[in-house]
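Review form for a predicted model. The reviewer records the input and the model, then writes brief findings.
Reviewer: anonymous (R2)
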Amino acid sequence: MNLDSGGFVGLLLFGLLAAGANLVGGFVLIRSGAHRFGERFLKYLVALGAGFMLAAIFIEILPESVSIWTTNLQGKPAAEAVVGAMTLLLGGYLLIQLFEHTIAPHFHFGAETHPESFMRPSAAYAAVGGLWIHTFFDGVSIAAAFLVSFRVGLLVFIAILLHKMPEGFTVASIMLASGRSARTALLATVAIGAATLAGVIAVALLDTRMNSAVGYALPFSAGVTLYVAASDLIPEVNHKEERNPTVSIVVFVGVALFYLLHRLIEG
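Model under review:
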């Protein structure tokens, strides 16, 4: 699908909304300084986002990716095409594994950021770099999904939006815990918001030069999203569950919410 000027502006708008949610998360922490208040709210948002994102991946993004890769194919060629799509998904998943546990090994995502791990500024900046990669592919996912259809794009946008405030909250926490100023923490939050917008723009520009761009971007970004949901958010939910089992139930609420919206939008 090729973008016209109106479509490009629409993508930018959704990218700006997602980036704005990053800024809101960071701003709430920086202005209030109320980490405990933030955790009460964000732990449920993290759980809701985890369930919604997992449902979006398996109910919407993966079926669309397979459909794109197997168009006009049957039998063995179709199976080989699916392997190609799944390889891209695995590549996206492993990319975040590389950044979180090799390049930024002290990085943990979620409402609880373990400040003692971020006393060194170098570790803090490495963690922010890992979040930058996360948020860049948030933008990639949003743009790729809207290039498939407005319905798919809207569902993926909502899934990503649900964890954007926790992202902003996390990056601000990291910077403040490392001894950086509130101004630096806010700038770091702006940087990860800008990365989301950069991801949207990158896919939109690539689509104007390469008709098959969405076929590559969608499964790869799905792998990144799968890592965020399954390897970052769910462990954080499980950790919170030790003190509050209700948090785990909210994951299922997220799945149910996605399915309900999926049926309503499809109808």
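Findings: The chain is about 85% helix and 0% strand.
Further findings: The two ends are 23 Å apart (CA to CA).
Recommendation: see findings above.
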